[in-house]
Specification:
The chain has a single domain, classed as Rossmann fold (3-Layer(aba) Sandwich). Helix 1 packs antiparallel against helix 10, helix 3 packs across helix 9 and helix 5 runs parallel beside helix 6. The protein is of the alpha/beta class. It has ten helices and nine strands. Helices cover 40% and strands 13% of the residues.
Length: 284
């Protein structure tokens, strides 16, 4: 378990606002994009890439003992690109190519186009099964690496997730840590109206997972919880991260319309000013 100091938390908050600025810059260049989920997952990505993931090296992105991260909800790729660029995996100059023909920054992450992407995702429900397979293979090879996954709550309706959840428990894949970005909205509306999986903790618990629930924007709590995994020996770990869709941009927060946002330059200007104000408050 890692306990971070107040000074470390402040620095992480600064990283998070920069990642949000990166997301906004990318979506502005592409004219539209899935900004809501990218912003709700920002603190999760900040915690992972600045405090949790081990042996991650942009100069050697294929290190055998590196921890793996999979963004199962591939449409949240904006925050993946924002983070990898900030960590030095590729130049921010690529932001201007987002969603263009032959771009290395497509609308869903492609492991063949960018370093640091561990798996192609986009068809929902595939990230977790891939991660389970990775976890099983690492155990066979005595590889100490862990596998971290961010899932969207809207993708839980895909049946492959539940097959993978059962397999992970059966095979005791306790090197697997899954975070559900629980922002409670998906493209068509509230998740509990479209396909209700509550009580989510008990559902995964019944599959043999060890489950905790946290504030998905509280960096201290995120890091404290993630680094305590596995929560129980022999069990995969699930963290239900309660978040706010489009966190950080007030007029988009908690709106269905932020799921896939068509850029309006006037709104972009407002969003930039809001993020600049947050950065100033944090001493940036």
């Amino acid at each position: 378990m890692i306990k971070i100091t107040d000074d470390e938390e402040l620095e992480l908050k600064r990283y998070a606002v920069q990642l949000r600025k990166n997301v906004l810059a990318i979506v502005k260049a592409g004219d539209d994009g899935h900004i809501g989920g990218a912003l709700s997952a920002t603190e999760l990505m900040t915690a992972l890439y600045y405090k949790v993931l081990k042996n991650i090296d942009p100069k050697n992105p294929k290190k055998e003992d590196r921890d793996r991260f999979i963004m199962s909800a591939g449409h949240k790729c904006l925050i993946v690109y924002a983070t990898l660029a900030e960590k030095g995996f590729f130049s921010k100059d690529l932001f201007n190519t987002y969603f263009k023909i032959k771009s290395k920054l497509p609308g869903h992450p492609d492991m063949h186009k960018l370093p640091g992407i561990e798996s192609n995702t986009g068809s929902l429900g595939h990230g977790l099964p891939i991660a389970v397979g990775m976890g099983m293979s690492f155990k066979m090879d005595n590889n100490p690496a862990k596998i971290y996954v961010i899932m969207g709550d809207g993708e839980l309706g895909e049946g492959t997730n539940w097959e993978a959840a059962a397999a992970a428990s059966h095979h005791k894949v306790d090197n697997l840590i899954v975070m559900i970005d629980r922002n409670k909205l998906q493209i068509c509306g509230p998740t509990n109206e479209i396909m209700n999986f509550e009580p989510l903790d008990k559902r995964f618990g019944s599959f043999g997972w060890s489950v905790r629930s946290i504030d998905g924007h509280n960096l201290k709590e995120i890091i404290d919880t993630i680094t305590d995994a596995p929560f129980e020996p022999g069990k995969p770990s699930l963290i239900i991260c309660n978040t706010l869709k489009a966190k950080g941009i007030s007029f988009l927060e908690n709106t269905v319309g932020s799921h896939h946002w068509k850029v309006n330059l006037e709104q972009v200007s407002l969003a930039e000013k809001e993020l600049d104000a947050i950065a100033k408050e944090l001493g940036l």
